[in-house]
Design a protein that fits this description.
CATH topology: Immunoglobulin-like
Number of helices: 1
Strand content: 35-45%
Number of domains: 1
Structural class: mainly beta
Order of helices and strands: EEEHEEEEEEE
CATH architecture: Sandwich
Amino acid sequence: MTRFKTFNPYFVGFDRLFNDMETFAGIDKPYPPHNLVKKDVDGSEYALELAVAGFKEEDISVEVKDGTLIIEGKGSSDEYTYLHKGISTKNFRREFKLSEKMVVESAEMVNGLLVISMYEEIPEEKKSRKIEIGASKPSFLKGA
């Protein structure tokens, strides 16, 4: 494992080289585990997937506050006596810093995953545009 990686999973929309602070500081793996997926080729659409098997929709809240995506889960009390409990339903709180351009669009539960869809909103002046090439000479060359 390297001390550097090309993407820090806590910064959504910042694609630059970050130091792997979790490993360096000896911090345990965060709960619940998550994936950050680039959904399109140009890199403006993302999905954040959190493994939340055992949680119901009403047990989870998703909020954006001050540029931070906050996800909280309230574990339910166990109705059973387990001989082995390998699927955790403990309370959790995860925070992900969003870039200024990132817009959280929706959240849904799919097969035990909480899937949060978001996209990078590119200002009009930053979007690429096609410039048509005219047949006439530009006005500054007419005297030549």
